[in-house]
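LAB NOTEBOOK - FOLDING QUEUE
OPERATOR: T.R.
BATCH SIZE: 2
PURPOSE: Compare the predicted structure-token outputs for two unrelated chains run back to back under identical settings.
PRIORITY: normal
REVIEWER: second-year student, initials M.K.

ITEM 1
FIELD SEQUENCE / FIELD STRUCTURE:
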Amino acid sequence: MIDQVRASLSNLSRSERAVAETILADPEHSVHLSIARLAVAAGVSEPTVNRFCRSLGCRGFPDFKLRLAQTLANPASFQVRGLDDNDSSLQLADKMFETAMSRINRARTRLPEQDLLGVVGEILDCRRLLIYGLGPTSGLARGAQDLFIGAPIAVVVHTDAVIQELTANTASSDDLFLFLCTNGETAPMVQSATLADERSARLIAIAPTGSPLARACHRTIDLVLDSSSATMAGFTNRLVCQIVLEVLGESVQLAGRTQRKFKHLKPSRSERAVG
């Protein structure tokens, strides 16, 4: 709610802006004020305070106070907000940041730890990790290669549908495919997954559960990705995928370092014989 008040400043009348600036100056104090005391503090009338509240989509001052109190009680609470053609650059920035944080929080709370552990284990157990991305996820796939530098596996990235299909058709049981698809419905990826499965390769998708790609793969990291055409869905989906890839890359790197450390500390066969 605080971000919403800040974003509304340029659209308010002078008197309504005075109310907004009074609240932004000290939200923790303002939430305890009556409408009369807030009006006095802002130097406006009580009807002006009510107009300000309604301009934010609230039913009135009590509703505004409730929403403000909820925001202050949970500062990490963010809302998905739509863009408007009349938004200023600052309003666009506020809305995009808040929407991104909302979807990141939602993904974080719904991402089972066992899913991550299972994927990390499979990556460490494979001979070759093949990362597939098409269209909006091509850049994610290319960037993901750098995340696994130093890992004890070979990493291959393909962002061309023809090459993806050819490679999938020559896969082996030692290969692990990681498909990045924010809607889970990209036909060439589904086809590549089907071909790789016929070659006994292991398949993981970062895609919505229940999508054609998810059904074609053995394991899915379901991030409750927005598969609709909702505002900024593509941007926020890619952002969430990037974060998960970063987590997977760092987890694999950490596991690799731990393995090397224990291997270094483990006594050799001759040392055990002497002991």
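ITEM 2
FIELD SEQUENCE / FIELD STRUCTURE:
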Amino acid sequence: MKTKIISEIGINHNGDLDLCKKMIMASKVAGCNYVKIQKRNPDICVPENQKNKKKQTPWGEMTYLEYKHKIEFNEEQIQELFDYSKKIDIELFASVWDIDSAKLMRKYTNIVKIGSACITDLELCKFVRETFDFVIISTGMSTEKEIEECLDVCDADVIMHTNSTYPCPEEELNLRYIEWLKNKYPNKEIGYSGHEYRLSTTVVTIALGATWIERHFTLDRNMWGSDQKSSVELVGLLHLIEQIKEVEKATQYEPQERILFEKENEKKTSLRK
């Protein structure tokens, strides 16, 4: 399969190391090429006006800042996740939200992603381009100018179209923007990061030219967490990859004069005089 599939665990692990390992294994079993988490320093990334807001969590009431710290993995846990991923032969990387997190992740991987929330942080974008070999960006919430400014600084290897609404209604997916990106950046790989409920709208992006696909993944949509409901479970991930393979077969030929295949030619001889 030529399409690269990213299983986005994100923060769906809820800070549970064993759960994250199970999700990594499930992503491997499903046939994903990559599995991704998020890494941030909450002290830097959480807006000041949000830090002391109270939040109800499975661990009781706490401030939003305390909650964000609760679900972050420390460096020892990050090392354990990378060791585990290497052992089962699936590549792990992260979306980084700040330079400290980028420095940490660079110890373990040459691949990094700048998520939609961070592509206007040009200092971060510049740092990851100078530090990592392969850079992916998502374009959610962004104007065309903001995307251009990000690319001027980080020269991303992959540009992922996305809508940052969770879940995103079908009428706002704007999937043909993928074609726009392909025409505008012919030397870049174009991908799609989906946050919708269904699989079909993700699969169709292959026919539009996407060569990277990312979907949020969970073991159970009923688990607690803001991203669980817009994530796919293991059965959905298996179906997604199988359907992508089918679309790849159906779209393998470049635009050209009509091909008359052998079986169709046999049909032709039986039906035409």
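REVIEWER COMMENT (ITEM 2): The chain is about 40% helix and 20% strand.
FOLLOW-UP: none requested
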